[in-house]
Amino acid sequence: MKKSILTLFGCLAMTAAISAQDLELTPVEKVEQRTTALEGAVKTLQKFKVSGYIQTQYQYGEKDADGVKVGNGINDWEKNNEDGFSRIGIRRGRIKFLYEDGIVQGVFQPDITDKGFAVKDAYLNVKDPWIGTNSIQAGVFNRPFGHEIAYSSSRRESPERARIIQSLFPDERDLGAMLTLQADKNSAWNILKLEAGLFGGNGIRADIDSRLDFIGHLSVAQNFDNIAYGAGVSGYFGGVFQNNDTVYTIKNKQFEIESTTGNKGKFAKRQYIGFDAQFSAITVAGLTQLRAEYIFGEQPGKSGGAYDFKLTALPLPTDKTYMRNISGGYIILTQDLGRLPFSVVAKYDWYDPNTDISGDDIKGAGEILKSTIGFGALWRINPALRLTAYYDIVKNETSKNLAGYDKDRKDNVFTLRLQYKF
Questions:
Q1: How many Å apart are CA 371 and CA 352, to the nearest integer?
Q2: pTM, entire model
Q3: What phi and psi, each to the nearest 5 degrees, are found at residue 267?
Q4: 146-167 residues labelled b (16+ CB within 10 A) or e (exposed)
Q5: In whole angstroms, what separates CA 52 from the centre of its chain?
Q6: How far is CA 136 from the centre of its chain?
Q7: Do the beta carbons of residue 209 and residue 316 sit within 8 Å?
Q8: Torsional class of 252: left (φ above 0), alpha (ψ -120 to 50), beta (otherwise)
Q9: Are 220 and 240 in contact (CB under 8 A)?
Q10: What is the model's pLDDT at position 1?
Q11: Where are the beta strands (DSSP E) in 82-191?
Q12: 196 vs 214: CA distance, rounded Å
């Protein structure tokens, strides 16, 4: 009891002393004290940054167009409609939260659209404490392959990425860890950059096969007064779990059994090699930008086409494995109109999901080569607001032995998009 009373008196005495000190402060000292507290709060807020962009759009697609229909055309009206169809929607609604304290950076970015809510980025990045150009990154983020994957949708001149990028790398992101190596900014070797990591292979979903895929990108980039260039080489070396013993490969322009034993429990090769290049120049005509990318490799899949690399839960698929050689790429040219806030853009991209067969040898939709010629115009209304008008002309390979693909399908798309970036 005595100890409790003594403790109470001690606390009261300390409080009185502190109050007395506060009373002894001059007005100037009080201002300085408040200023110091305010500066501390500002420094904390400076570590936290919020940015994002909203893309609202109107689209018109011909009756066979992909990516415009609700549920890929399962809507009864869209399924049976012989004419084109249109839709107003939100293509992307991104808000990025970034907190940086010293060498550590944390990023969280959701995507909120009329289709729902999805997490696009959630990762931490730790820089080296010496030169600050090397780092380790872990979480959900862009795969380090090629150029267009990491090229922000808020900057990209075409409404969507190339078909081969969308097919091989759905969502662009994956769950994994990556190491970035680059020399000091004052070094002549700073123009080289290596990004390499291990990833789950299922996009923004949990790993389900106890195996990680390797992705790497080695690039070079250099800027001069009015000219800049860049180039890179990428590699994807992974596998897809085989839950069936039978493996098919292409022989004599058709699928034939390669093996029927010893494959269950192993991994089919999923391997891509990519080359990318970029060039830009400022002249009296304005800024000219040219970018290109080419990808080829081996793709495991099912009889109807490639696997859906968005598997979320067991049981693993029991389909027979069909191996395909694939290739594709894109080239895009953007030209500013002098000092006017307008640009014109033209893009060609293609994706061949099976390079070993073509024409009338094709008997499945998963083997059809598709190419797209896109062109449009951009109006930079102000630094934050941009309007894009763009038209995609889609062409497909034809086969008299495949219903629905005996002639070119009607699948062109027009996009009018308004973007606000903050």
A1: 9
A2: 0.88
A3: -120, 130
A4: bbbbebebbebbbbbbbbbbbb
A5: 15
A6: 19
A7: yes
A8: left
A9: no
A10: 46
A11: 85-101, 104-113, 116-127, 135-142, 173-182
A12: 7
| pLDDT single digits (tens) 199-250 | 999 888 887 788 999 999 999 999 999 999 999 999 999 999 898 999 999 9
Query: pLDDT tens-digit profile of 379-419?
Result: 999 999 999 999 999 999 999 999 999 999 999 999 999 99
**φ and ψ at residue 324, rounded to 5 degrees:** -130, 145
Q: For residue 88, how many C-alpha atoms fall within 13 Å in the half-sphere facing its CB?
A: 1
Q: What is the pLDDT of residues 96-148, one digit of tens each?
A: 999 999 999 999 999 999 989 999 999 999 999 999 999 999 999 999 999 99
CA distance 31 to 211: 60
Whole-angstrom Cα distance, residue 269 to residue 247? 12
Model pLDDT, residue 315: 63
Structure tokens at 275: 């080359």
The pLDDT mean for the chain works out to 89
Q: For CA atoms 179, 328, 395, 278, give the dihedral sign.
A: positive
C-alpha distances (whole Å) from 16 to each of 10, 13, 22, 220 are 10, 5, 10, 66
**Cis? peptide before 315, omega within 30° of 0:** yes
CA distance 233 to 223: 19
**Band of pLDDT at residue 13, cut at 50, 70 and 90:** very low
Residue pair 372/348 in contact (Cβ under 8 Å)? The answer is yes
Domains and CATH numbers, the chain: 52-421 (2.40.160.10)
